[in-house]
Amino acid sequence: MMATAENLITGMLLIIGAGFTLVAAIGLLRLPDLYTRMHAASKAGTLGSGMMLIALAVFAHDQSIVTRALAAVVFFLLTAPISAHLLAKAAYAAGYRLWGSSLHDEMAGTLPKRHAPDAAAQDDEL
Amino acid sequence: MAAETVDISHAMVMAPATAGDWLVVAPVAIPILFGALLLMVRHETRLHSGLAIGGLLMTLATNIGLLARILNEGPQVMTMGRWLPPFGISFTADALGASLALVATLVACVCAFYGLKDIGATGRRYGFYPFMLLMMAGVGGSFLTGDIFNLYVWFEVFVISSFGMLILGSTHQQLDGATKYAILNLVGTTLFLTATAFLYGIFGTLNMADIARKADAMRETGPLVTLTMLYLLAFGMKAAAFPVNFWLPASYHTPRIVTAALFGGVLTKVGVYALLRVLVMLFPDERQVLSGVIAWVAAATMILGIMGALAQSDIRRMLGFVVISGVGVMMAGLALGTEEGLTGTVLYAFHSVLAMTALYLLAGVMNEIGGSYSLHDLSGLYRKSPLIAALALLLVLAVAGLPPASGLWPKVLLVRASIDAGQPWLSFAILLTGFLTTVALGRVYILAIWRQKEAPAGEAAAAASPRIGYAALVILTVPVLLLGIYPDPFIRIAAAAATGLIDSSAYVGAVFPMGVQP
Amino acid sequence: MRTLIFRTIAPYLTSLMVLFSIFVLLRGHNDPGGGFIGGLIAASAFAIYGIACGVSPVRRALYFHPMAISGFGLLLSTLAGWLSFFFEVPFMTGLWTKVSVFGLPVDISTVLFFDIGVYLVVVGSITSIALALEEREHG
Amino acid sequence: MEAILSFFVAIFFAVSIYLMLSKHIIRILLGVSIFGNAVNLTIFTVGRVVREVPPIIPEALQMPDTITANPLPQALILTAIVISFSFFAFLLVLAFRAYQELGTDDTDGMRVAEPEGEPLPPLGY
Amino acid sequence: MRLPLINILLALTWTAVSGSFTLANFIFGFLLGAGTLYLIREQVGSLGYFARSVKVISLALLFLYELVLSAWRVAVLVITPKMDLKPGIFAYPLKVDRDFEITLLANLITLTPGTLSVDVSEDRRFLYVHALDCSSPDDLRRDIADGFERKIMEAFR
Amino acid sequence: MSGSEEFLALAEFAALALLSLSFLLTVVRVLIGPSLPDRVLALDMLVTIAIGFIAVIGIRTGFTLYLDIAIALGLVGFLATVAFARFVLSRRYEQEFVKRDTLGIYGDKEP
Amino acid sequence: MTADSQWLTFLALMLPFAAAATAPLLTRLFRHNAAWVLALAPALIFLHFAGLLPAVADGRTVAGGYSWISSLDVDFSWYLDGLSLTFALLISGIGTLIVLYSGGYLKGHEHQGRFFSFILMFMGSMLGLVVADSFLTLFVFWELTSITSFLLIGFDHTREASRRAALQALIVTGMGGLSLLAGLLVIWNVTGAGSMSALLETGDALRQAPLYMAALLLILGGAFTKSAQFPFHFWLPNAMEAPTPVSAYLHSATMVKAGVYLVMRLNPVLGETGAWETILPIFGGTTLIVGTLLAVRQTDLKLMLAYTTVASLGLLVMLTGFGSEKAVEAAVLYLVAHSMFKGALFMVAGLVDHESGTRDITSLGGLRAAMPITFAAAVLAAASMGGLPLFFGFLAKEEIYAALGFSNGWSSLLTLVALIGNGLMFAIGFAVALKPFLGAKVETPKHAHEGPVLLWLGPLVLGGLGLIAALASSVSHQFVSSPMSSAVAGLPVTVTISTVPHVGLPLLLSVVTVALGIVAFLMLDRGRALMAATLQTIGWGPDKGFDQALRGLTRFSFGTTGVIQDGRLDHYMMATFVALAASLLIPLFLFGELPSLPAIPDAPFYEWVVLLIGVIGLGAVIYARDRLTAIVSLGIQGFSVALLFMLLGAPDLSFTQFMVETLSVVILALVMTRLRLSPTDHRPTGEKISDVLVAGLCGTALGLMLLRVTQVPFNGELSEFFAQNSRVIAHGRNIVNVIIVDFRGTDTLGEIAVVMITGLAILALVRIRAVKPARATGKEG
Ligand code: NA
Ligand code: NA
User: Fold this and answer.
1) CB contact at 8 A, G251 and G291
2) pTM metric for this prediction
């Protein structure tokens, strides 16, 4: 009985987690600019993998695995926003401007600019 | 110690390891220890040279002890971690490995001594002596290990250490030279690793004695000729054989002269050693199949090498090409594969280690008193220092293979071996190389030493004679001369080395005393 | 890098990672891990610390020069091998003994010291590289 | 699986060598890095491949009771990875310093040790 | 932060006494220790400790809820054939001023729906936040102020 | 094999399929960029997916020890992002470097 | 030979070297008078060898020696028969006089001690050469004579001409030495004899061996270069740059005869064949004519003598190769005579130069009054050289003509050659001996008067000996000529010719020679002009050719090296990888080591995906147009490898690979801040194609090899052992880790050494600045 529940929960978590991950990947492809893509990666992606780790924790009977899996999730939640922040800040600082149809940019003017804010020219040599 | 509750006799060596047994590993473990120690006292640069020379002398002492033991008792083995061979890594020292390790350590001692003057505080702080010690650990490990993957590791140890020595100073020349040296050497060692991977896939073992005894059985099923060819290429690269020798002339003239001296003396010989060990001892039949290729490679290396020397104005660069040419000569013995030829190769290796190191140091001293490395500028050294003129003459004779110095007998042996083996053209190549060496170095001698460009007013300026340089040169010239005048013991050791390669039974027997597969 | 958010969190991350690295080091004999991986993780930790807060705090935190730590690691590993000399067994033979720490039996072995040496070498060298490069950037 | 891996490894080797044949030091370095991976995969493949079962003895056993992946190539690769990483790091910094000092990343431009247009050695006596 | 330390010491004592150094036992010991501290709450002034613990847990729960919601919104957004996006960056005036609090807030914002912290201004008075739907930045600002920022201040002050 | 086990096996398979697809989509983003932060973001995403992948493989094979790799991956993925951010941010230093160099102030070169 | 005298002979052979070692000190003590002390060494040696004369005259040989390099069957042994003993006596005897002469000639020279050293070392080498029995001992001494002669010719090292001459001699004779070595080793190989004594026992073996011709040519290569046979003669006149004692000793009396010695020594085993009797006379005869003609051209006394030396050596070779006992006798007599008269004349030339300040025959004259003793010595020597009756040269010339005769066209031709050569030599000899002394006094740079005893003693003794030896011909024949001839001929020969002329063809020819010589003497100036004009017209000679060859060699080497070692890393890499492709593909195909076709593999879809990602990553690295895309793409392929490791049961590897790939990316990113990747791969299309081809071939080859290797049945005993003992004995469950720290811990020790050194090396790279040491040692933790 216990095993059945475990298997079911594990399976569900896996599918949902993988689903979130896929959604994040789709978002990464579909969304129009870096900043919007980051929303997909840092939320759906983090949650997806986090769920799969929890699935592992549910599945495993070894309590050390359980604790490590949970620790991994926490660790993951700790670092994910930091990387998002760093990347966003760096991109912005490097002159990577928002998508053309963005509504506001209240941050404009806070950082020295180098490049023309033209996304097409922002390729390479960043 | 926890009491052993399980029977370990099926997995471990039961005989105790005596202090004498430790001689096999000491020449590697001592320099590592000292290298690590030096790093810990990195800022106490005054301690460095003393510690380094002390460590090297200890290493030298163990080398001597080891060789003596081998000559008395045959190959010595210690299997690390007490595991039975072929499961543990067996250090297996035979006459070949131990003698080369001894000669290499000797020149390292001299170079460390020379470094007293050549290497300042900055050079020391950034690791000249640790690099040197670790390099010697790598070189020693390469000579003494009986495990082919472990050989790869020691190769890498000395290669990376050589990188460190090479860039110490960061001059433009060094950076350029080191780039080429590093990339090409990396490719070479990676090919070695690749070959070793294939070897493991075929044999399922890495112990060289184990491979030697299994080679016959595997010859049916495994692609051993291709494997051997790959080893030939990889080690050929390390030895600086044509057409994979470019890294050497590109870099050897760029570092401090003491570094170049150590490189020129020691490094290519490790490649030659590996060629001997693998091609002669492990894959003799395949070596036979490839002997034609090896012979051509040898001839091309020696002749193009010495032609390269003829083309140089800078004596350091010239010496780089002389090193290459010597590699070609050593490969001639490998191509022949006869006892006589291999004896010649090993003897040449002894000679080359000593003479090339000495020549580079000589170049350093010449620069010091003559103010240049260029043949266009050097002159008047005879007047400034008759001692240098005499030492230079001896060393020139040594590399040219003329009496009374060390190069003569290996040349004689190799020429005789190629005649005896029915390969007279190879002996022609060797003799031609000797001839061209005479031309190249003879010219250096008359230009740099004899020629007197300006009036000998500069003699006063040369009053500061580089005493350490002189002493180092004299120390090295003694064995060079000894090898020329009384070569018998050296030839005997070389012959023992060659015999041990051709008939690996002593080597295999030392590793597997039971003679049966455990 | 002048970012408050990163700078605030980096020290905690660093200690967390160093902790994890020691964990990985000590369990290496039985599970994936070991001195090398542990060392890499610890070195990464110091690299993050250095990038976030500058090189000097890291150097102060380590107290010894990273290369000296590396040298000590190699010395430790080699000495772990040399210890065999006194037991008449070949170089680098694993020697095991049990000691009691607060009544708990703990296995102490030369192999462990060897692995700790590996860890220290890796931590020292990689940290030294990262710091040296980081320093060049801003030096 | 060995066959697939052989093919895979061949691609790794080819790509790395193609990159190393470039004149640009960065491309060469990228090639060097891939070269290392190619060799590691080679070592892995020659030890023959077993899927998914790591060479770790379960807590309850004294020795493995099933066929595990071959541990030896893994150990060898670990050593090799470390070494190739070290070399890579060194080369990278070397390239960087060379670029800094010599002002070029084109190996054709880095001809200080063997400069172009050198004079002949003295032809007299 | 004295009390958490005492609590941990109590937990350690428990594991030592019970002779089992497992994490589960440690947590059990920690809870037991918390219980014992609760018994002497007036003498050691641990009332705030427990109140704050509750606040922290409530912050964590809020965060988890927001995270799931956030992921879900992204999912819905990206799989709709025609994405309706009105992104932009707005400046959020910070009330919290300690490094730790700013960092926590920024991270929480990042992990929650439609918002992502880009940077903190040099004078630490503004947090620049990127939003997927930036049509009404004032609403967003109010949400943050009433949500995470308030909870953080409750939990850590 | 019980029903729940069958379900789990199916779920594993489905998860692997979804993750594989995610991998490929993310790789596409790495390839098409267009900017460096986009690629870095995608690389970070790859790491995230890999963590999930590891979890699934751990469940599928029963070798839960792969978990530690996941932990390390979370760490290193983070590290890579930090490094790139660091790189992008320090580009301004390079501007300085170039300028000073042309003025001849940056004195690392041989005279 | 008794043990006692064996020891003495050894001592005699070592004595010159010992004397050489003490010479600088002695010279510092006694200045030029050290010559008297130092001359004791050769004198004692002479006495020792003279003591062996009776035994040798008895037809015995004196052999002895010590083991030297037993591993090579090389002994330090000697073989003294008539030939070698005569040479030993000439060397030590003339050597004694030369040492004395040097004392006077270099009086006051700051490096006189060094000069004594060199000349004594040369003497020891020469002595060793002629007495050596073991081939290799002979070779060693042979080369030592070249080396010491290099030092002596270059003694006046500040002059370019000296340096050139020294190098030239070294190169030419060095080349010959190598040829000799090869020849000796071929002989050793063919006959199994490694020493002269053993070889002489083998009879016809060598002549009948298939390698006879090779051996012959190689030996002659050594002999002809050393003995200055045309066209290798040019170095000898140039060697006149050396101080005159050297010219007198090395370049007339001793060293240049080493080649003749060799030919004579091997005559019994190499001679009496068509090749021998063709090659030697042709080369010898040509050398004789060329030498005399060129001698005519010269005005410098030493050069005149030098060319006649060349000619004489030609004559000796021609005679030795003629193939009759008589010719051998003639050669022997001429050799002895030549050593004496040429040595004397050289010393005379030096003496004249020393006293008058010039050696130009056209600016000398009338010195007879000022230098009567010198004049006497000169006349005595010239008389022997010209073959006048009562002198030893006369015996030689008689014997020459007697040997050659007119028995057939060949011998007639050679006789004619000898006639012309001797005639011209007569002229030159007397020109040197008479012109400076007779006639009106010519003003010379220095005011000439008779030199000190050290200087005139040598020429006078040698000149006088030419007379005495001839007068006491029975004695000299008994002890010298006959034993030597026997040794050369390989059978007992008795020389009988005496100064009492017998009417016959030889005498007639002698008369013709003298007549010819007188005519030539009188027409010497005209002849000189003619020769000068002729040489001017030819405009080229081997001497010039030497320079051209050396320069050409240098230029050719320079060009070749410039092509091979062109400083371009991409070329080096290309060569390396072409070699790699060839090294693998050729044996794979040639030795049938190709793999068999594998079955279609079966792998789960996600493995394919991982592999695909890897390949995509690789493609992306290649196509990356900026550095960062390249780095990220690199990350992808590394990531794929790590995942693959995980899927294939290698968690540790996967773990490490992830860490290492990330750290690589980190370091790349740290470093790349300043390192640009140019946006395009600059390779031209053609180069790209060849690169793709080579890379593709290498990849294919390595892939094929890998596939082939995996098709070999696998031996997993090592891993089996590790699995069995990992936990039981080594106390670890992670077998990989146990291998790393225990089973194969030594690998790891090396590995961490690599890591440590890398850290240090990078630190050095980053910190050390080439110029600013202040900064280099600056701040640092
Ligand atoms: Na993330
Ligand atoms: Na991450």
Assistant:
1) no
2) 0.93
- Among all chains, which residue has been given the structure tokens 């001997």? B276
**Which has more confidence, E148 or B240?**
B240
Note whether C120 and C73 are within 8 A (CB): yes
Contact F86 C1 (CB under 8 A): yes
Q: CB within 8 A of G621, min separation 6: which ones? A: D15, D19, D30, D34, G630, G633, G634, G637
> Which residue range is the domain that position A82 belongs to?
5-98+106-125
Residues of chain G with pLDDT under 70: 1-4, 673-682, 770-781
In this predicted structure, what is the pLDDT of residue B206?
Answer: 95
Q: Do G663 and C44 touch (CB under 8 A)?
A: yes
Q: How far is G156 from chain D (nearest CA, A)?
A: 13
Q: Residue E47's pLDDT band (boundaries 50, 70, 90)? A: low
| Confidence tier at F104 by pLDDT (50, 70, 90) | very low
Q: What single DSSP character describes residue B2?
A: P
**Chain Cα centroid distance, residue D54:** 25
Task: Suggest the residue from C8, C53, C101 to mutate for an interface test with chain E (most E CBs closer than 10 A).
Answer: C8
G759 at C interface, C-beta within 8 A: yes
Which residues in chain A are contacts of G629 at CB distance < 8 A? 124
Query: Are G628 and F91 within 8 A, CB to CB?
Result: no
Give the pLDDT confidence of B93-151 residue by residue, as tens digits: 999 999 999 999 999 999 999 998 888 888 888 899 999 999 999 999 999 999 999 99
Q: Is the pLDDT of residue D122 over 50?
A: yes
Interchain contact C1–A (C-beta under 8 A) = yes
d(C-alpha F84, C-alpha F90), whole Å: 10
pLDDT of residue G671: 79
Residue B353 in contact with residue B104, Cβ under 8 Å?
yes
Query: G651 and F63 in contact by Cβ < 8 A?
Result: yes
Domain ranges of chain G: 601-681, 718-781
CB contact under 8 A, F86 and C51: yes
A44 CB near a chain F CB, below 8 Å? no
Tell me how close the Cα of G714 comes to any Cα of chain B, in angstroms: 6
* Listed residue (B179, B185, B283) closest to B225, CA to CA: B283
CATH class, range G601-681: mainly alpha
Does E120 contact C7 at a Cβ distance shorter than 8 Å? no
Low-confidence ranges of chain B (pLDDT < 70): 1-5, 454-464, 515-518
Residues near ligand 2 ion, CB 5 Å cutoff? A 83; F 77-78
More confident residue, A123 or G475: G475
Q: What is the dihedral of CA B134, B136, B137, B142, to 10 degrees?
A: 130
Tell me which of D45, D93, D104, D112 to substitute to probe the interface with G (most G C-beta atoms closer than 10 Å). D93
Tokens 């050791």 locate to: B493
Contact C36 D78 (CB under 8 A): yes
CB pairs under 8 A between D and G: 307
Contact C36 D82 (CB under 8 A): yes
Distance (Å, whole) CA G654 – CA G643: 6
Residue B261 is encoded by which pair of tokens?
Answer: 């001296």
Confidence of residue F92 (pLDDT cuts 50, 70, 90): low
- Decide yes or no: CATH 1.10.287 for domain D2-53+69-106: yes
Q: How far is the CA of A83 from the centre of ligand 1 (A)?
A: 7
Q: What distance in Å separates residue C31's CA from the closest CA in chain D?
A: 7
Q: Return the number of CB contacts < 8 Å for A and C.
A: 15
Q: What ranges do the domains of chain D cover?
A: 2-53+69-106
Mean pLDDT of the region A8-21: 91
If one counts the domains in chain A, the total is 1
DSSP annotation of G447: -
Task: State pLDDT tens for residues G585-635.
Answer: 999 999 888 888 888 778 889 999 999 999 999 999 988 877 778 888 888
ipTM for the predicted complex: 0.93
Domain boundaries, chain C: 4-138
Q: Is the pLDDT of residue F98 over 70?
A: no
